[in-house]
Each structure stands twice: as C-alpha cells, then as structure tokens.
Amino acid sequence: MKKLSIALLSVLMMFIFVFSISASADMGPKPTLHIFVENAPADAYYLDLLLEGNGDYNSNLREKEKEYNETMLNVLKNYNESGWHTGIVQGTGAPMWGDIIPSAGNTFSFGYFGLPDVGRNYKIIMVFSDGSYAVSDVLTRQIYQEEITIEYSKADNTITVTKTQNKFLMFIKQFLPMMAGTLIIEVLLLLLFRIPIKENIVLVLITNFVTNLGLNLILFFSRISSGSLVSYIWFVLLEIAILIAEMIIYAVFMKSKSKGLSIGYAAAANVLSAVAGFFIMLIPGVFV
Q: Phi-psi category of 271—alpha, beta or left, where left has phi over 0 and alpha has psi -120 to 50?
C-alpha cells in the first residue's frame, strides 16, 4: 500500500509539472492552418480563407488598408457569395491572425480562435493583380495544427489541394519512440530489480504493447482534434490508470520473489516511463 501511495504521489507531481508547462504561453498551442502554394502566380496575389456566415465582424488585417493594393483588396472586402465571407479582410467573430500576402516560399499561416474548428468547412480564395480571382472547392479542417499544399492552375483558374498530412504516419512517429522508450526502461528495471527476464519478457512486451497502443491512440486523436494541451491532460490521467492496471497484472502474473517486488517494479517502471514519455512528446516531429 505504501508503494502504491508513493507511485500515485509521483504521478500526481508529474501531472502538476506537465500541466504547468503546458498551460504557459496563453494556455497552450492554438489552432493553426499553414498553406503552401505550388505553381504560384508570378505576379502579385493575395490569399484569404472563406468562412461561412454573414455578420458585422472585426477585420483581421495586419496592416492599414492603404498598404494593400486597392483593386485586389476590394475583391476580398466585397466578396459575399452563398453565405461565404473572407476571414482576414472581412473578419471573424473571434480573432484570427494571418496575412493575405505570401511569405517566403509562397506560404500562408492562419491561426487563433477565429479559425474554423476541426470538422468545420472553409474555402480558399486567391485574388490576382488584374482583379480576377479563383476559389477552391469546400475544404474541411482535419487537424488542429494543420498543413496543406495547394496548386493553382492558371489554365483552369482552379485551386486544388495536392498534399495533406498523413495521419497514419503521424501516429507511427508518435507511437514508436513512446513504445521504444517504455520497453528500454522496463527491461533495464527488470535487471535492476533482479526479476528474471526470460520468464517475464513476454508478459512485459504484451502488457506494454497493449497499454501503449491504447494510450497513444487516445493521445493522437485528442491531439489532432483538440490540440496538445488536452492531450497532456489525457496523458497524465491515462498514465495513472495504466499504473494501477499494470500493478495488478504484474502482481498476478509476474514471476518474481514476491508480489510486493512485482508491484514495486510496476510502480517504478510506470513512473519513469511516464516521465520519459512526456519528454519524448516534446521532441519536434513526435508530438509538437
């Protein structure tokens, strides 16, 4: 019972640590949409998001209107077809940051709470120097912090999405290092606790594969739908549940000198793997 209390206290302290880090920077990451333009026009062009709804919104333009091309800006300012309006120029209810002028490499970045939620629709509009414009088909936000590549065809005056993030690959990049880190720690602790590896390796592998798979699936889907801050909270809650489950499993099935040793092993292994997992999540390309 004492070992269980110490383990739970350790995880609780980790929760406070994780949440304090995650809650900084205006309570965690915000929704973003990064758009990369292939075959971009050689002449000047603007790009904005078309959002559903009509109303008296606050413009999200970064610069004063006189800093923009009047002809091109007026197209975005006056666009209102079938209930769609421009998100940066005409504005949004909640703030949304972004720029209609392309940055280096013909990229555009939009974000903050005025951006449509995951599952909501939007379109892309491009306006050209002669006042003409092109509008994409209806698109749907798929990931909380999303990246897409579009291509503009001058011949057809169309905007087509050519590349989106691969969700399966994103999951694999998250799952494999988390799983590997857990197994390394658990095998090393088998040696430290002098628990026979040969008799218990299958149990450790199966238990950790199942728990890591479930953990990472929940973390992944919460991350792409609600952002990493929500996932960090889920991470701690799930790690507490996994800790208790593995204590029970190892106490019943692990072959060691005593149940107390098995429970102590489970507590130490889960606390250390949870701490390691959190820092693995911070590695660029794994989780953030």
A: alpha
